[in-house]
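Lab notebook page, bench 4
Experiment: in silico fold of construct C2
Operator: M.H.
Input chain length: 183 residues
Purpose: comparison with the prior construct
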Amino acid sequence: MKSPGRTHRRHHRDVIAERVGLARATLPHLRRIDARGAAGHSAGMRILSIAIGLAVLAAVPALAHSFRLGEIEIGHPWAPPSEAGDAPVYLALSNRGAAADRLVAASSPRAREIELRGGDDAPLQEIALEPKRPIAFRAGRPHLALHGLTQPLAAGEEFPLTLRFAGAGSVEVTVMVEAAPAH
């Protein structure tokens, strides 16, 4: 029997179980919800959850800036800001297919000519894409060289670039002009 003037607090699991006709033991997954509506997590778990959420959000623009042509994946094409003249274009290429392919040409309305360049900066006729062997185009590695820019490349701009592959065909991608990749 309860003592007069004293309120008996029942656990929320008991109340829920009573209302749905279940034993309390069948509802072990329910957690205490505090006045702010937050589940009883420690501050560290909340910080970890926020950090993971921010990491996912930061990855979304990078993921959104990739392209695909059949089994060829093109990742984050970008170019550094540049005055009139020449500029490099960097990106990642991956052949997810079973057969090799080759990047044979590139074009853009922003340049008079685009050369395929090797790691030693020598012009190449093609860049081989072996299956399951990704290639990162960057300084000191294979890359694209824009010659005769029609106008300077300013940070924050984007411009179209068409890549032509021997087997897969052609695809137009968007090149972001930025001081360094966003990811």
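Observations: Helices lie at 12-20, 43-64. The CA atoms of residues 117 and 123 lie 5 Å apart.
Next step: discuss at group meeting.
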